[in-house]
Amino acid sequence: MITKRVHQLADGRELIYFDDADTALAPERAPDLRELDVRPPTATMRQDPLTGEWISIAAARQNRVFMPPAALDPLAPQTAENPSEIPSDYDVAVFENRSPSFGPDLPQAGADAASLGHLDGIGLNRESPSFGRCEVVCFSPEHEGSFGSIHRSRARTVIEAWADRTAALGALPGIQQVFPFENRGAQIGVTLGHPHGQIYSYPYVTPRTQRVIASVDSYGQGLFQDILDTERRGPRVVLAGEHWTAFVPFAARWPIEVHMLPHEHAADFAETTPAQRDELAVLYLRLLRGIDALYDTPTPYIAAWHQAPVSTHRDSIRLSLQLTSPRRGADRLKYLAGSEAAMGAWVGDIPPETQAELLRAAIARADEENPV
């Protein structure tokens, strides 16, 4: 059994340990005895009246740790020389971000639209509190690595943590969407080499999901299932199991882009079954290790786990992975220039069918060299 243990950090932030099913750790955990400053105030969102999008102005993030030496790793277990965020050794640890983009404040339960800042509609100079919660998910106590470097049992623990936190965060007042993700590599902007991801809880439905909602409303409730069925019959599948299929999408934007969908509908991680989680722990590791096997050096990526909003389109929007990388060669990156960055009009560099073929070969190599 994967075990959950809830604690608090010295400034009141929640810290949750998730122990592997085969953990070697004792159940006791040390208290956090640091003297910490008061947490920064909740940021403020401003609306772009041309797009309707809300931008969180989170100035406190400028003070976050940037590429510290291993001896001062803020995500490693605490030592006398390293007063990190996590007091004890751990398998997987989740804690509230000290300088979050959203939160720590939440609206009062049952608050009306006025107190939430009228997030619908368009106006000039509109502001609203950046309500929400941001959490850090530490995949391992090791100083270096990523999700792909952990073992199978640990991967299963992380997935369990994603499911637990999705349910808990989605139940908080004012939260409209929960988003687990991993940024990997300095080229993506990662400031810590420690294997970790994050979970953002938003006070609105994100712009990308709003576009997905519009597509579902236009096409019909079966859009995700029809995409999956079409891809499973085509040439772009890179990995498939009993419960999940990973594929390069028909209209891939990035040089490396892989989507993964469960065969049975689940709106988010909280709705996945134990069997789906067990298989995902294997397939996801194989996928990530295959992506690293494309070249001689690790590949930077963003692994985005898209989930249905908390209170709408739960039966039609399916949990899905969108893994993207700007790497278009061993020593080349795709930069978003005029057309993509300014107009959102993408130009693909590699045919999706070609990329799928390369990924299948890379996954096969990785399976031989480092089986899960």
Structure report:
The chain has 372 residues and is an alpha+beta fold. It is 23% helix and 22% strand. It has helices spanning 152-170, 207-219, 223-232, 274-292, 338-343, 352-369; strands spanning 3-8, 14-19, 44-47, 54-57, 92-96, 127-129, 133-138, 177-184, 196-202, 237-240, 244-247, 256-262, 301-306, 320-325, 327-329, 332-333. Strands 1-2-5-7-9-8-13-14-12-11-10 form an 11-stranded antiparallel beta sheet, with helices on both faces. A 3-stranded antiparallel beta sheet has the order 4-3-6, with no helix packed on it. Strands 15-16 form a two-stranded antiparallel ribbon. A hairpin with a 5-residue loop joins strand 1 (3-8) and strand 2. Helix 1 (152-170) crosses helix 4 and helix 4 packs across helix 6 (352-369). The relative contact order is 0.12.
Low-confidence stretches: none
Q: Sheet with the most strands?
A: 11 strands, antiparallel
Q: Helix fraction?
A: 10-25%
Shape: globular
Q: Class by helix and strand content? A: alpha+beta
Average pLDDT level = 94
SSE blueprint:
Layout: E1 3-8, E2 14-19, E3 44-47, E4 54-57, E5 92-96, E6 127-129, E7 133-138, H1 152-170, E8 177-184, E9 196-202, H2 207-219, H3 223-232, E10 237-240, E11 244-247, E12 256-262, H4 274-292, E13 301-306, E14 320-325, E15 327-329, E16 332-333, H5 338-343, H6 352-369
Antiparallel strand pairs: 1-2, 2-5, 3-4, 3-6, 5-7, 7-9, 8-9, 8-13, 10-11, 11-12, 12-14, 13-14, 15-16
